[in-house]
Amino acid sequence: MTEDPTKTHAATFRVTAQHPALAGHFPGNPIVPGVVILDAVIAASEDWLGAGLGVDRLSFAKFLVPLKPDETAQIDLVLRASRLEFSVRCGSTSIAKGAFDCDRGQDP
Q: pTM, whole model, 2 decimals?
């Protein structure tokens, strides 16, 4: 069975080396903080859905491999009722995965 195309979406993002969150994270070996990755997931989701997610909670999140500044990452989204599942990868390497419980169409 294939996934309903209206329920899946992919987007890309890139965090530049000048992003303010990188200043202290970590000097000499900067990595993109998890919260910046989660923010990119929410922004991509809201762009896709055309409305605020109204995130109730982050059900789970795993950060598997650090994302470096200026690397392009892909976000894959699956919406199942009020649960938004995501995975983030850089090339073929899985960086993060998780899920939000949300109230679609409400302001975040």
A: 0.88
